[in-house]
Request: fold
Amino acid sequence: MSRHEDEVRLGHMLDHATEAVQMCAGRGRTDLDSDRMLNLALVRMVEIVGEATNRVSDAGQEARP
Reply:
C-alpha cells in the first residue's frame, strides 16, 4: 500500500470524525436516545473511521500511532 493511499484514508478518518463531532454540537444524550437518524448517522461515521483505520498500512500506523 502506498503512502498516498494512507494519506487518503487518514483524510477520510478526519473528515468523518469531524462531521460526527459537528452533528453532536448542541445535543445531549437524550437527543441520541430519541433521534434514530442521529444515532444511525453517528454509528455509520464511526464505522467509516474504523474501516479506514483497518486499511492504513502497518508502516502508516507505526508512523502515526
Notes: Residues 3-56 form one domain. The two ends are 17 Å apart (CA to CA).
